[in-house]
Amino acid sequence: MDINWTDFMAPVWLSIKIAVITSLIVFILAAAIAKAMANRKFPGHSLIETVLLLPLVLPPTVVGFVLLVVLGRRSWLGEWYENLTGGTILFTWGSAVIASVVVAFPLVYRTLKAGFEGVDRDLEDAARAQGAGEFQVLRYVTLPLAIRTLAAGYVLGFARGLGEFGATIMVAGNIPNRTQTIPTAIYVAVDGGDMTLAWLWVISIIAISAIMLMFVNRYS
């Protein structure tokens, strides 16, 4: 079978782009919120935790449906975006990033929060007693001690962005060379009986994931 390698690589490059952007956004958001929530109890804490973790237990198609409504042309957000840019958020690679961020956030948040809570608070207090400011405590004490967990959280965000399917196909669709990612490409290939092409995409996503894991295991 002759394979058009340009068409084959399009979902690969798009998936990598979405995974990189997703992992960066999710990591920054999750780190900030996890640090604020770690080792703290306040009124409404459980409710906030529930909302933050809700996408973890919901089917991806449910998340996709909610995003479809929130980002659609009839919503205030979708209408504002269309007035601003002249286009829609839905069925673009940007909407795939949004879907991946929402789905990946709970996993990364839980991982990073556990990492921050695992840092010895006595060491942080000792640094403060020596005159260190909160930023210095974070930079020189908290982050170095939590680095392995932070690295694991980043990889989880990357992997979730790379492999997201259910929510993505609802808000971004499966448009070749525009919104088709590796998971959606595999689905279409299998549905069309093209097992060779499906296997090649499966191998590619396994290889990308393995490279990320080896990098983190080596440098964390």
Automatic annotation (TrEMBL):
PROSITE patterns registered for this protein in UniProt: ABC_TM1 (PS50928)
GO molecular function: molybdate ion transmembrane transporter activity
Protein name: Molybdenum transport system permease
Localisation: Cell membrane
Pfam families for the chain: BPD_transp_1
Key words, A-Z: Cell membrane, Membrane, Molybdenum, Transmembrane, Transmembrane helix, Transport
Span of domain ABC transmembrane type-1: 12-214
